[in-house]
Write a structure and sequence with these properties.
The complex is a heterodimer of chains A (about 270) and B (about 240). Chain A is built from nine helices and no strands. Chain A is mainly α and about 270 residues long. Chain A has one domain. Classes of the chains: A mainly alpha (about 270), B alpha/beta (about 240).
Chain lengths: ~270, ~240
């Protein structure tokens, strides 16, 4: 705190000081949310404006999709096995009947686990990549060079990542769903001797589940690159600034995915499942 | 012409640009010198519209740069070429794509014309056969020459060179200054050169502006700065250490 600030704070009344303390907490949050919304709205504006760098969209799709595929498949594969293993034992102890386990599990995967866990994986893997890449471009003045050449950084850097992420988050969520269901089916069959045909039960699935699955995948696909890009664009200083931006991207993107999950689950409940 | 009037910029409570007034006439090359942290690069970025000052005015060829919209800024920036301190070469583009980028952005030229112009400039900066290389395959001196080529390819009437010889050996620095001098001799370009390399700058600038702690402490020609009796000016110009 500078001398000027110290003198200013000392002159405040206790009530004013409490309000100032709240400001210290909330002003940076509000500023950051405003900045994320600004980057997001500009990204959407430029997403519908030519030129779109399709070559970069394909490259980013490869980076987000193909390079995250193994990571997502392994995590969701193990998660599927753990879920069925743990829930199977509980169900056997309490209910004693595992016939409906496959149907419930499939519904849970559609509504919750497949898009949300995939998004959390992408927030760490893709979010860090985007923030580090754009952040290092900021600190090495490449973003300034874009501006000096009348190339809008959001159009040039954020839009290709946004478009690639929208498509790839949906694709990866579908893959994750299949893998998690497959590994879950394997455990159900080998550990609890549930027949494969019995486990594969779509009777509980509704259109609402498919809509919520798609909505969540779309929302996460939009949120992650925008939050990560905003973190990268706000980087300053040197490598330390890039590190801070990367951490900020993971924390903010994971938080946003969790909050969006809560909101969209609520929306799903109100419109489809209540 | 560049006219800077009463420009102030604060970082927190620290005034990093403190009431700067400066006029750079058309067609002159001005050396902006001063110790590290004096505000030279920041002042240049304010002139380029990359940093917004807290108050003051910057006129580039009669157009106000401070507080204008993106559309007006586009027309101002199309008049400016900038060589960045940290090279600022796009690492996802080849040398050829980097140098040709300003022309592609301006539009109105075929790919063949752009390629010819890039090749001509690569020969001028003594980097033949590097078209397909990426920035991470180049040395520091080569990168500086590529970024110089990118700054001048569109023949902008205004050029900003931000520490063009930072981190380079004396031979490579000499080559870079020779390119700047060649550009000046062609005439018609208004330019600002920010550098710590006083020796290299002496012969390539029409006048010098010495900054310290965000203020302009001296402004004049080489003869005037050499004749100055002010201790700080003489000490900095001769590169002498504090007693």
């Amino acid at each position: 705190m500078t001398k000027h600030t110290q003198a200013y704070v000392a002159a405040l009344s206790p009530t004013q000081r409490r309000i100032a303390q709240l400001g210290v907490i909330f002003v940076p949050i509000v500023t950051q949310v405003t900045e994320i919304l600004r980057v997001g709205s500009l990204a959407f504006y430029y997403a519908f404006k030519k030129p779109i760098r399709w070559r970069e969209v394909v490259q980013q799709s490869f980076f987000i999709g193909n390079r995250s595929l193994a990571f997502v498949m392994i995590v969701l594969g193990f998660l599927g096995m753990i879920l069925i293993f743990q829930s199977g034992f509980q169900a056997k102890r309490i209910v004693g009947d595992l016939q409906g386990m496959g149907a419930l599990y499939l519904q849970l995967l559609f509504r919750e686990f497949a898009p949300t866990v995939t998004a959390l994986m992408l927030a760490t893997r893709v979010g860090t990549g985007i923030a580090a890449e754009i952040g290092s471009m900021v600190v090495t003045e490449q973003v300034d060079a874009l501006r000096m050449n009348n190339a809008e950084p959001i159009q040039y850097l954020v839009v290709p990542r946004l478009l690639a992420s929208i498509v790839m988050t949906f694709v990866l969520s579908c893959v994750a769903l299949c893998v998690a269901f497959g590994t879950g089916m394997f455990v159900a069959n080998t550990v609890f001797e549930v027949n494969v045909a019995t486990f594969y039960n779509t009777s509980l699935l509704e259109w609402g589940d498919l809509i919520i699955f798609s909505l969540k995948a779309l929302a996460y696909g939009i949120t992650i690159p925008i939050i990560a890009s905003q973190a990268g664009l706000s980087a300053f200083g040197g490598s330390e600034g890039v590190g801070t931006a990367t951490t900020m991207a993971v924390v903010n993107a994971s938080l946003a995915v969790t909050i969006l999950d809560f909101v969209l689950s609520g929306v799903g409940y109100i419109f489809f499942f209540s | 012409m560049i006219r800077i009037s009463e420009v102030y910029k604060y970082r927190g409570h620290e005034c990093v640009i403190n009431g700067v007034n400066l006029v750079i006439p058309q067609g002159t090359q001005v050396g902006l010198i001063g110790p590290g942290g004096a505000g030279k690069s920041l002042l240049m970025k304010i002139c380029a519209g990359l940093v917004r000052p807290d108050s003051g005015s910057v006129l580039i060829d009669g157009t106000e740069v401070v507080g204008i919209g993106d559309v007006e800024m586009t027309s101002v920036r199309s008049k400016i070429g900038m060589l960045f301190q940290n090279y600022a070469l796009f690492d996802f583009m080849t040398v050829e794509e980097n140098i040709g980028f300003p022309l592609r952005q301006l539009g109105g030229r075929t790919e063949e014309e752009i390629r010819d112009e890039v090749n001509r400039l690569l020969l001028a900066v003594d980097l033949p056969n590097t078209q397909k290389l990426f920035p991470n395959e180049l040395s520091g001196g080569m990168k500086k020459r590529v970024t110089f080529a990118r700054a001048v390819i569109a023949n902008p009437p205004i050029l900003f060179y931000d520490d063009p010889t930072a981190g380079l050996d004396p031979v490579t620095s000499g080559k870079i200054f020779a390119l700047l001098e060649e550009r000046r001799e062609r005439g018609g370009t208004t330019s600002i050169v920010v550098s710590h390399d006083i020796l290299g700058m002496r012969d390539i600038c029409d006048s010098f502006v010495l900054m310290d702690h965000g203020r302009i402490v001296f402004s004049g020609t080489r003869e005037e700065i050499e004749a100055s009796t002010r201790p700080f000016v003489g000490q900095f110009w001769r590169g002498e250490a504090d007693d």
